[in-house]
Structure to design on (77 residues):
């Protein structure tokens, strides 16, 4: 298991996940990030932001955009 962090990046700043969660693979992290993005999309103030998936070293591995009623996975590699 590896620990991943789910930060929220917006034009107004980055909200850092200080706890993270353990996942056995990156696929599970993308599903979890999409769930976070869908929940945050309900609050209109997060539309246009992204959920950033980072590893324990702080390297960003992927992003999920937060939209209005939809979620789009955006690869960063």
């Amino acid at each position: 298991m590896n620990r991943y962090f789910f930060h929220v990046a917006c034009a107004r700043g980055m909200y850092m996940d200080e706890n993270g969660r353990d996942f056995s693979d990156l696929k599970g992290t993308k599903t979890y990030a999409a769930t976070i993005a869908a929940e945050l999309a309900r609050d209109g103030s997060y539309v246009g932001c992204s959920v950033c998936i980072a590893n324990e070293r702080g390297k960003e591995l992927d992003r999920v955009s937060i939209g209005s009623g939809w979620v789009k996975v955006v690869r960063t590699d």
Remarks:
- The mean pLDDT is 89.
- The CA atoms of residues 7 and 19 lie 10 Å apart.
